[in-house]
Amino acid sequence: MTEVTEPLPRFRRVLLKMSGEALMGDRGFGHDPSTLNRLAEEVRSVHAQGVEQCLVIGGGNMVRGDQYVANGIERTTGDYMGMLATVINALAVQSVLEQAGLQTRVLSAIPMASVCEPYIRRRAMRHMEKGRVVICAGGTGNPFFTTDTAAALRAAELGCDALLKGTKVDGVYSADPMKHPQAVRFDRLTYHEVLAKDLKVMDASAISLARESAIPIIVFSLRSAGALMRVLRGDGPHTMITEAAPGAQEVRS
Ligand code: UDP
Q1: Is the model's pLDDT at 252 over the cut of 50?
Q2: To test the ligand 1 pocket, which listed residue (146, 148, 154, 203) has its Cβ within 8 A of the most ligand atoms?
Q3: What are the tens digits of pLDDT across the range 14-40?
Q4: pLDDT of 91-143, one tens digit each?
Q5: Less crowded by CB within 10 Å, the N or C end of the chain?
C-alpha cells in the first residue's frame, strides 16, 4: 500500500474507541486474528501520518456486567469482570500493534502492576508525545459505567481533537439498520439531537462529557480497509456529532 506523505491537517491527537465486539469479526466470542491485524494496519497507517493516538477498547466480546446478574452474580462484580475483559482485549491489541512495528503502552484504570502501567494522565500524554500508541484499559475503573464513557473521559482529559467510534455500521441511523432496512443514516448530528432522539450510539453520559469538552464524535465502520484514515480525511461514510450542525442532513446509505 502506498503511504500518503501529506500530514493530516484536521487532527493532531485522536482517541479511537472500539467495542469488544469489533475485535470478534464474525465470531461469537473472543478475538478474530485477521480483524486484529487489520485494526493494527489502520492504526499504523494513521500513526505514520504523525497523528497521536490513544485507544479505548470495550469488553463486550467477553463480559458485559449487567448480563451476569441473571446468573446470580452481583452487578458490581459483573462490572469488574467486564473491566478485566477490557484489559485482556488491550493486551491482545497491544500485541498486534507491536507486531505491526508500533511502540505502545497499556495503561489500566485498575492498577495491575505486573501486567501494565497504571493509568496516569500525564504519563499517557508523555507516551503519546514520544510517538507511542496508548491503550487505555479498565474502562473508568468504576462499576455502572461503560467504555464509551471511559472513551469520552480520556478524550477530554488527554486533550484529543476527536473521539472516533469504530463500529460495525457506518454511522448513526434513525433505527437499527440491521433490523430496519429503511433506516436512514445521519451525516451530521448535534449532541443535543443524539440525546433528544435517544439515538443508540453512545450512552448519555459519554455524549454529555464530549459535549462539555466540545470534542467531536465521529461514528464510522471499521470493517473496510483504510476506514480510519478515510474518516480522518473527512471522506467515506460516517456521522459527525458536534454542538452545532447547521443543515443537519439525513443521507441514505
Ligand atoms: N465496565 C464498567 N465500568 C467501566 C467500563 C466498563 O463497569 O468504566 C464494565 C461493564 O460491565 C461493561 C463491560 O465492562 O458491560 C464491558 O464494557 P462495554 O460494555 O463498554 O464494552 P463494549 O460494549 O464497548 O465492548
Answers
A1: no
A2: 146
A3: 999 999 999 998 999 999 999 999 999
A4: 999 999 999 999 999 999 999 999 999 999 999 999 999 999 999 999 999 99
A5: N
* Stretch 240-249: mean pLDDT: 72
Quote the CA–CA distance of 53 and 129 in Å, as a whole number. 10
Query: Best substitution site from 56, 63, 64 to test ligand 1's pocket, by max atoms within 8 Å of Cβ?
Result: 64
Q: Ligand 1 mean position to 77 CA, how many Å?
A: 12
Ligand 1 centroid from CA 253, angstroms: 29
